[in-house]
Amino acid sequence: MNQLLFLLAALLPTDVQLTRLDGNTQTGELQQISATDVILQLNDGPQTVPLAQVLSIVSSRTDSAADSTAGMILLRDDSRIIAQDIRKDATGVSGIAAIGPVSIPAAQVLAVRLQPDTEQYRDQWRTFRERDTEKDLLVVLKRDRSGLDFLAGVVSDISSEQLSFLLDGDSVEVPLSRVYGVVFGRNEPKGTSPRSAVRVDTYNGDLLVGRSIVAADGIWTLETMWGSRLQGRFDQLQSIDLSSGQFVMLADHQPLVEEFFGADPSGSVTAVILGADEIAFPEEEQLFRPRRNQNQAGQPLRMRQREYRSGLCLHSRTQISWPLDREFESLQAVIGIDDEVAFAMEGRNTVRLVVKADQNIVLDTLIAGRDEPRSLTIPLAGASTLTVLVDYGDGNSLCDWLDLADARLKIIQAAESR
Fold this sequence. Notes:
By secondary structure, this protein is mainly beta. It has helices at about 1-10, 120-130, 270-275, 280-285, 340, 415, and strands at about 15-20, 25-35, 35-40, 45-50, 55-60, 70-75, 80-90, 90-95, 100-105, 110-115, 135-140, 150-160, 160-165, 170-175, 180-185, 200, 205-215, 220-225, 230-235, 235-240, 245-250, 255-260, 290, 300-305, 305-310, 310-315, 320-325, 330-335, 350-355, 360-370, 375-380, 385-390, 400-410. The strands form five sheets. The protein has a ten-stranded antiparallel β-sheet. It has a six-stranded antiparallel β-barrel with strand order 1-2-17-16-20-5. Strands 21, 23, 26, 28, 31 and 33 form a six-stranded antiparallel β-sheet that branches. Strand 7 and strand 8 (about 90-95) form a beta hairpin.
């Protein structure tokens, strides 16, 4: 039956929107993805786009086929697979997903959820998942179903009816009806994981992270981070995100140092208005700390009515340094004062932005609320550290909400890494 569905998939047109690195889009029928190109069928014929220029491919469909009764396999590379009949043995974890049977090495699996996702237990389950533990956490439903509880031990296997759990030297067989999920212990030392190049979302709710993807004749093939291959039909694809093989979003990049030096220059208007002597520095630091993917008020980043999903909002006087390790060729961003405060002082509020590659100043500029947002590309090739300082531009910090929108580090030789 699966083979028949795969053959029929080749006959189903798949309309997608392809977005290039420069922001331009094209809409057409997805024909093929090779190691070097994407081919779209447009109204006037086929169009070949170099893969290195593609940011994303998104299906035009808006429906969803997620199975609300299924469980989930969560991987250490951030992949998630919606699956039924989840099993575990000494070699790994398996299940039946919408794309077909999957089998994953045990070392790659972070957790499995064996019960349907419900809002009642979602926050507790997330807390258990985020624990860094050497032992396995067996997460069970409380008898009155009021919440979740856990036991720490070793989960040796999961069958269709029960789970084998080693607790303090004793083996216990636990009915699956009592088990909400398992968070597996980390038995290997932490290290630098290889960088993914592609993220695939399916209509069933899967998120699949991999090294590369190819597609032809209605079938796509993803090379996973653990060296295996997963296949699916074109009609199962919701989106393909290729940005992770080319960029690292600055908001997601772990900083080396994050420093806040105070929002109130001595003797400034800000100090008088805010009563600097009455505000404890820790409270001020919390109030004006860097915001990721939102502005200082917790709202979406917005400049001249355009919203940005990713970026930083930095208040003066803040300095952040990030590791580069000579892996990136440039920093790209759209910079300007956030709309929420851009015109609060008739546009006269000003910040100073200083960017360093190692100890070299590569940008030193003033940005006023009245200024139009501007795009910038800063060369970083050969640099080990990136440092961004948002300083007082006009002697005070009133309305100093500087957005670094869509800020991204371009990876050197991104095309070859795919």
